[in-house]
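Human: I would love a firmer grasp of how sequence relates to backbone shape in proteins. Could you go through the record with me and say what the backbone is doing? Here is the record:
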Amino acid sequence: MNDHNDSNGANQASSHVRGRRPARGEPLLDRAFRLLACFGPDTRVLSLTALAARAGLPKATALRLARQLVGQGALERTDDGHYTIGLRLLELATLAPRGHGVRAAALPHLHDLHHATCQHVQLVVREGLAGVLVERLSAHNAKRIMYRVGGRLPLNATAPGLVLLAFAPAEVQDDFLVGEGPTEEDDSHPTGEALRAELAAIRRDRYAVFSRRQWDTEMTGVAAPILDRHDTTVAAVSVVTPSETIQPAAHIPAVVTVARAISRALATSRETY
């Protein structure tokens, strides 16, 4: 697998003090989601003790919540008594129009772009101040890249993230620019006024190009916005390729054409995105 340990629910859950009793009056639903957020790419199976510690809940509370979540299918028990995410959550997630709904409309066009480029093709939506990768098609010989399907990526460190940030509401851009959004720990991404200028250029050109080193390879992404029938940007499509393989400009026409084709598909759909 070409997946990287992106920021995940386990990191979020660890912000709670281990073993601390939950705040008085904390809603049950909040505690249940804290428990679910303990799972991540490297923590797919957890014991009750680990769940309680990661969620910052007393063990008895974690057990009670875990049993209820198992009863609803949100968690499952393994043969040795540990816990994993249940299939019921996948069933519900497939109903999310901004994820699988957009994916269903985009997938035929993503396959066309994949066949044309033989590289990574990505579909990304924005969730708050981060992007979420909802689909990725990869060639067998494509270089390894950092983000997994379902993983979050910073908006200013990838081409699709920059597109989504450029066409986000002004208040979202302001929140990100004052430092509230997640970022990467390198210096390859623009910040401050440089980022404002880049976002303005992306809105003008209607595509983004972004390069960064991923492990031992310089990778370049080209991305374009996908619009719904209200001309609102709901997703971004991108191609990611080794920078030395092809000039980024060579992918721009194909990426923009596919973005427009997906936008037309969404415009004729009755779904709300």
